[in-house]
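The aim of this short unit is practical: by the end, you should be able to scan a pair of folded records and say something sensible about each. We start with the first protein, listed as its amino acid sequence and then its structure tokens.
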Amino acid sequence: AGLFAVGPNSLHAQFFQVPPELTLQPNADLGLNVDYVFGNGSDFYKIVAEGNGPTQQQQNTIVQLVRSRGKATYTHASYMGAYAQAIASKCDGIQHVPANGTLSSSQVSLIRSQGQFVTPTMEVFRVAFANPALGPLLGLTPADTYENVVANVASLRRAGVPLAVGTDAVGSLPGILNFPFGRTLHCEIQNLVAAGLGNAEVLRAATSGAAKLYKLSDRGSISIGKRADLVLLNSNPLTNIANTFDINSVWVGGRQVTGILSSKGTSCDPTTY
């Protein structure tokens, strides 16, 4: 997504040490901003809704400008106020779910009717609540609970809001956080099943469903002409979703990856990252 729309003095601007001139100032020329992002080869436009973030009007305008260029906008929103902004902006997709409250039925219905989808990233919340030192980094407050996360995912799913499997994985940030690619995805799949998704449903949400939602037409299913990104398992994940860890072989772009070992029995203990 390249340069995201992040407000000056916001949590994300501080955490990622974004230079002031690259933050979205109150008087920013949003047309130039959008052109800059896509002129640098970005595929999507990312908005960060948070305290000191882009205003509601800025978010609305960005979504309209991006859509006029045939592109998609995705909004980071991890608490109730930010979620209200993401819904109002009518962005294409929302990343995360609120942890400090539960979405109302009218909010969930609006997400569905506007054609928005959600990538819940339950695992990053589960790990944060199991490791209190991470709370301040993610802006968590005493009002935030994992129970709210689960409840919001369940209500979105019941309403038929499309869900994509994602994790917010960043790999290793020395001295701050180790949130690895790979394992977190398998654990996220288990989290979604625990929240009410069926095994086949969540596997689609991690493959063909996610590809469709993110408009990645060259991957996501096993068919002629698609990228040969394949994971061969020893055990059936339809009978036990934890069997996604029981890996036999992996291919990326048609090339088999060597040195792959079965991870059968790997724990999703959130305190061991």
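Turning to the second protein, read its sequence before its tokens, just as you did above.
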Amino acid sequence: VLTYLKSMGPAKELSLLRLSMKVLMLILLISGHRCQSMHFLHIADMVMKRDSCAFQVTENLKHSRGNAPATHIQLMGYPQDRRLCPVTYLRAYLQRTSKLRQSQYLFVTSVPPYNRVTTATLARWTKTILHAAGIDTTIFSAHSTRAASASAAASKGVPIDAILKQGCWKQESTFTQWYRKPITMNNSISYQDAILDS
């Protein structure tokens, strides 16, 4: 998938749909979250800096219980390879949609009237990228990105506490039983770098 994402660009040459899909896939892989979380990303809850971007998701997500604190999604710049830099592509996406969008939620349709997309649309975009990258989408779904990114992080030596926090898992057993997949890698590295350096 990362090899395919590198081939998509630069941002100014991508259609709005392809730019939307690339931004979505980068955030899914880096955050370890579901499409549901992407559906709730809101521009008003975003803090964009020169080399980073943070979202606070205040709406209840699948893993939320009771009065759970807001979920934070942090994206860091990736100067090692700008073709995979989530901040670069997110900034281009925001600029491209600034005068079009009819919604302050991050992801909007790629055709008029540019309203907020549904979770099902986000899942379809994700599956489109997986298929284009040569992934068998009869086996792997949009939700597979969650297991893939967390497993890659674990295999690169990211501490289990950081993985659980990133994926909003309360117990290691949940990650181990349902999400951890065998991947051969090593090193000690940050969650985002573990994904992008794969």
